[in-house]
Amino acid sequence: MTTPDEATAQAAPHRPRTVTVTVNGQPVVLPEREVTGREIKQVAMAQGLPIDEGFQLSVRRGNGRYEVVDDSEEIHVHARQEFLAVPPDDNS
After folding, report:
1. When comparing pLDDT for 1 and 46, which is higher?
2. Which are the contacts of 76, defined by CB distance < 8 A and separation ≥ 6?
3. What are the tens digits of pLDDT across the range 31-90?
4. How far is CA 7 from CA 1, 3, 4, 14, 21, in A?
5. Do residues 59 and 75 make contact, with C-beta atoms less than 8 angstroms apart?
6. pLDDT at 89
7. pTM of this prediction?
8. Which of 4, 12, 21, 65 could tie 81 with a disulfide, CB 3.0–4.6 Å?
C-alpha cells in the first residue's frame, strides 16, 4: 500500500528545471541548475554558439569581475547569469 505522499511522488516524475543564462552575450538554456563548466560549454555549442570545449569559461560575479570556471567545477546557476567563453590564447 502506498501513502498519499508516495503516490504523489510516483505520479509527478522529476522534471529538470531549465534556466537561461548568457554565454558571450547569447542566451543558452541549461537543463539543470547544477552544472559543470564543461556542460555549460557543451550545451552552448549544441545551441549554435561558435565555441569549443577548449575555450576558457568564466562567470561574471557581483563586482563585475569574471572568475574562471574549471571544466570539472560544478556550479549553481541562476537566470540571466553571464558567462564568457574565450579561446585559450586570447589575452583579453
Report:
1. 46
2. 33, 34
3. 999 999 999 999 999 999 999 999 999 999 988 899 999 999 999 999 999 999 999 875
4. 10, 6, 5, 13, 34
5. yes
6. 76
7. 0.78
8. 21
Strand duo 34-36 + 74-76: pairing:
antiparallel
Comparing CA positions, the residue from 60, 50, 48 lying closest to residue 84 is 60
Give the helix/strand (H/E) hosting 19: strand 19-23
Spatial CA neighbour of 22 closest among 86, 72, 78, 83:
83
DSSP for 48-90? T-S--TTSEEEEE-TTS-EEEE-TT-EEE--TT-EEEEE-TT-
Q: State the pLDDT at residue 45.
A: 98
Report helix, strand or coil for 10. Answer: helix
